[in-house]
Amino acid sequence: MEDVVIRTLEKVELKDPVLVEGLPGVGNVGKLAADYLREQLPAKPLATVYSKFFPPQVYVAEDGIIRLVSNDLSYWKAKGSGQRDLVILGGDYQGISPEGQYEITERVLDYCHGLGVREVYTLAGFAQGRVVEEPRVLGAATQPARVEALKKAGVVFSRNDPGGGLIGASGLFLGLGRLVGIEGACLMGETSGYFVDPRSAEAVLKVLGKVLKLDLDFTALQAKAKEIDRIAQKIHEAEQRSGETTPAAGPAAREDLGYIG
Amino acid sequence: MEDVVIRTLEKVELKDPVLVEGLPGVGNVGKLAADYLREQLPAKPLATVYSKFFPPQVYVAEDGIIRLVSNDLSYWKAKGSGQRDLVILGGDYQGISPEGQYEITERVLDYCHGLGVREVYTLAGFAQGRVVEEPRVLGAATQPARVEALKKAGVVFSRNDPGGGLIGASGLFLGLGRLVGIEGACLMGETSGYFVDPRSAEAVLKVLGKVLKLDLDFTALQAKAKEIDRIAQKIHEAEQRSGETTPAAGPAAREDLGYIG
Amino acid sequence: MEDVVIRTLEKVELKDPVLVEGLPGVGNVGKLAADYLREQLPAKPLATVYSKFFPPQVYVAEDGIIRLVSNDLSYWKAKGSGQRDLVILGGDYQGISPEGQYEITERVLDYCHGLGVREVYTLAGFAQGRVVEEPRVLGAATQPARVEALKKAGVVFSRNDPGGGLIGASGLFLGLGRLVGIEGACLMGETSGYFVDPRSAEAVLKVLGKVLKLDLDFTALQAKAKEIDRIAQKIHEAEQRSGETTPAAGPAAREDLGYIG
Amino acid sequence: MEDVVIRTLEKVELKDPVLVEGLPGVGNVGKLAADYLREQLPAKPLATVYSKFFPPQVYVAEDGIIRLVSNDLSYWKAKGSGQRDLVILGGDYQGISPEGQYEITERVLDYCHGLGVREVYTLAGFAQGRVVEEPRVLGAATQPARVEALKKAGVVFSRNDPGGGLIGASGLFLGLGRLVGIEGACLMGETSGYFVDPRSAEAVLKVLGKVLKLDLDFTALQAKAKEIDRIAQKIHEAEQRSGETTPAAGPAAREDLGYIG
Fold first, then answer.
1. H or E element in which residue D107 lies
2. DSSP labels for C161-176?
3. In this predicted model, what pLDDT tens digit does every residue of C25-34 receive, in sequence order?
4. Residue C121 pLDDT > 50, yes or no?
5. Is C251 helix (H, G, I), strand (E, B) or coil?
6. How far is it, in rounded angstroms, from Cα D18 to Cα D38?
7. Are B36 and B140 in contact (CB under 8 A)?
8. With contact defined as beta carbons under 8 Å apart, do B75 and B14 qualify?
9. Most buried in the list A128, A168, A186, C146, measured by CB within 10 Å?
């Protein structure tokens, strides 16, 4: 089979659209943000991405219907002044091998280039290894002017973070994007790295909303954050009782915090 | 070499045939069921599937003759009223890498599509991690109508099982099948996951027989199940004597229970 | 680059040649036998096999000259009555991934088919996991008539050995060979599996010599076997002194026994 | 995407140029030497090598600008008598799989062949597993005459080192180079293997400078070596105080010594 298969669900004309990428990763921040954005706008299904570089797996929904693991493109047409058409990439997995990551990213970029995309924002989490009360949004970009613009939107460009660079889709969409004339930036929400982190996703989306002039309601995302807090608190108390001192959680509660988001 | 090589053994005209897949996996339930079905009907050799995504291995039969590891397609022509022609896929291995699983599944689906296949049943085991006295048959399908039909045949569609979806050939034949217009369902026999499980295979085949209007004799499969029981009992007793409490078995008896089936 | 690159060193006309394969593996028996055969005949360089499925490595000879790791084909023209032209495959490595094994084997088989090869003998070791004083030669073949002929030459076809089949080049040359019309057999010398085993290689070559009517002098191979015995004895004594009871060897002596052969 | 993508930055005419390769590896000696050579000459950007066989990663510079990981070709035009035009290969990574190493090396060799390259020097470290006060430069070459010439430049051709051959790019550029008519040699600076080793890089560059008639100033490289010494000394003292006896370093200091170079 082809390494990557992209099935178009709706043929659509977009005007200078911006690609927003958010796939599973650290704290699931990118995926939480992209999924929430898609629901809030709401965006419509555009195309499905299948690949032999994803796991050989189907999900089974509660009604018993299966679905092959995939990435998914949605689109949203600009409504207000200053807004831009959007293409949003979400999905179940990143490619499970380095080569697979390159192949999938390049094919999706090609497809989006064909839709007129020349700009990309990638959304991700940045693991600090400690609890982060008020997550900052760290940035990286393909052009100096873009760095300046994002600073004005509150993005932090730190000399030391991210030290080793970005690994995975959020970096690769920028790195390979440049090779095909797509410029952009990565927005990284600080997160502990221990839990899925809707609060960090909110911080990232607030910056994105400012940059793309989107009016987003964060009520549902904040409710999710509070639920995670509640579970984390329960775990903490259980550990206090059992005399544990590590941030590790009990199996059941941990599952609630699992990277399903 | 080509990634997947399919050698046709007999050119045959089939009428709207149904594909039945059963490869090695959890409790070897799928393979046991497919192999037993092939012997009972009996089905005739149709094609052999070789692939560089199988292990680089040959088996040596008791007469000293080697055979390259493979998957195998057999066919059976409908005899009675309401019956359908069948194509059965069995074999030594699933693809040993994720990419290999995709490649092999897609090539076999293509080949079967060429034979007229538009419907598939995949057979598998579902590991419960505990002894299962009376295995239920869990289901997953590509269409709601199919779910309803299978419920009537006694298949359980559980909200929670299988939680993480299906991994491997039994899921992939459904997921990739849909992309080429082949709809179907997976029948998963509950099993402990510790032993090969002919009883679970029987449960799966009983459902399949009902759905496909096949009249199957389960005597030989039940004899195999009793033999497994007998060996398991011996292991249990040996462990009792040696004071072990885990379900782990002694090396010799374990080998008898090995996933050869 | 091409997956496998075969460079012809000499264009040669061969008459119905037989391929003899012996690559590194259990006890290095196959490689020892093939290398010894090549030196004794002696065979002449025919072609070099390079592949990205070998390790990315060069060897450095004592004179400082490098050589890319490879497999190597040599040829020998029949001299006496009843003899056949030979093509011998030896080399530094088998392919280091399952797919690589398939690719390399198929390309070498194709190349040899082009030379007129329709028959293959693969040489290997069979690990018994215990010291073997008088190694038997076990067999596996592609045709019943071949089994009968080899039994007459002293080859043992055992119901139980090799139980799980043959893994690696010696099996694959038979399994893939059949698909392109090359029939043959595998000769497996029993060996402990702990050391390189020239004695097992000698047993294998004696059978091969009988079958192919080759008159081989085993003096040098027997000398090598005695040297291995001597080192093994030293290790054994050192272990006795240090109170060890396992067959594991001291680092220095072990290196002498290392699978360089 | 293509396995390896080479983007030319400047079209340049070179006269019988020599390729110098230095990528990350043991003691980072090769990379340190190639990078230093490029800065000292200084060499100009010629082409960038991207590949799906590198990690899916971008680096973020202090100004927030990302850069996809790559290898990089630079060129330098001969200025003095006896000098030759140079092409220098450096970069972030070697290919991360054996197949990737072969693919990248072959494509870079092809590209350089197109530039007129027929000679290559590969630079590397040779791990001795002990502190090396005055690193010798060990050699390996593709031709006897080259061995003799290098001996005169002080290169040591040892019967035992490197025993197992060369693994990775420095060997492969020689091994695959020969197949396309590019001859050459590897210069290996002795190093402990524990730290990045600018002193070993200096030893290698001194030999290279002699062979290629380059006049190099080593002040900055020597300063870097002293800094490494100073950090190593601090670690040693800290370990003395804490009673450790292994050469392992404290986490902070170790990071300073990390293979960033």
1. helix D98-114
2. SSTT-EESHHHHHHHH
3. 999 999 999 9
4. yes
5. helix
6. 14
7. no
8. yes
9. A186
The string of pLDDT tens digits covering residues A37-82 is: 999 999 999 999 999 999 999 999 999 999 999 999 999 999 988 9
Report the C-alpha dihedral over residues B56, B59, B65, B68, rounded to 10 degrees: -40
């950007």: which residue's tokens?
D45
- Residues A155-195 have pLDDT tens digits of 999 877 777 789 999 999 999 999 999 999 999 999 998 88
CA C228 to CA C191: how far, in whole Å? 13
How many whole angstroms separate alpha carbon C162 and alpha carbon C126?
Answer: 8
Residue A71 CA to residue A109 CA, distance in Å, equals: 13
Residues of A within 8 A of D256 (CB-CB) are: none
**Cα distance between residue A187 and residue D139, in whole Å:** 48
Measure the CA angle with vertex B79, ends B74 and B85; round to 5°: 40
Nearest to B62 by CA among C159, C36, C69, C14: C159
Question: From CA B175, how far away is CA B182, in angstroms rounded?
Answer: 9
User: Position D221: which residue type?
Assistant: L
DSSP-assigned letter for residue C62: T
How far from B55 is each of B98, C36, C177, CA to CA, in Å? Answer: 14, 29, 16
A246: pLDDT strictly greater than 80: no
Question: Within a 10 A sphere around the Cβ of C229, how many other Cβ atoms?
Answer: 13
Amino acid B130 reads: R
Average pLDDT over residues D89-114: 98
Residue in D101, D105, D147 closest to C64 by CB: D147
Please give the model's pTM, rounded to 2 decimal places.
Answer: 0.91
Q: Give the pLDDT band (50/70/90) at residue C244.
A: low
Which amino acid appears at position B16 of this protein? Answer: D
Cα separation, A104 vs C193, in Å, equals 44
DSSP, collapsed to helix, strand or coil, labels residue B8 as strand
Which residue of chain C is at minimal alpha-carbon distance from B59?
C165
CA distance to C73, C138, C202, per residue, from C88 (Å): 5, 21, 16
Q: State in Å, rounded, how far the first CA of chain C is from the last one.
A: 31
Report whether C113 contacts C105 (CB < 8 A). no
SS (H, E, C) A169-224: HHHHHHHHHHHCCCEEEEEEEEECCCCCCHHHHHHHHHHHHHHHCCCCCCHHHHHH
Cβ of A166 within 8 Å of Cβ of D60? The answer is yes
> Rounded to an integer, what distance in angstroms lies between the CA atom of residue A204 and that of residue A34?
10
Q: What share of chain B is helix, strand, coil (3-state, %, to 5)?
A: 40, 25, 40
Provide the token pair at C158. Answer: 């055992």
Cα–Cα dist D202/D189, whole Å: 9
- Return the residue of C nearest to D95 by Cα: C56
- Determine contact: A59 vs chain B, CB below 8 A: yes
**Whether complex ipTM tops 0.85:** yes
State whether residue C51 sits within 8 Å of chain B by CB.
no
Residue A69 zone, left/alpha/beta (φ > 0; ψ -120 to 50; rest): beta
Rg (chain B; Cα; Å): 18
| Count of all residues that appear for chain B in the document | 261
DSSP state of D2: -
Distance from CA of D62 to the nearest CA of A (A): 5
Gyration radius of chain D's alpha carbons = 18
CB-based contact D69:D54 (threshold 8 Å): yes
Could A176 and D59 be called an inter-chain contact, meaning their C-beta atoms sit closer than 8 Å? Answer: no
Report CA-CA distances (Å) from B40 to B17, B22, B221: 18, 15, 10
Chain C residues closer than 8 Å to D141 by CB: 64-66
User: In the predicted model, what is the mean pLDDT of chain B?
Assistant: 91
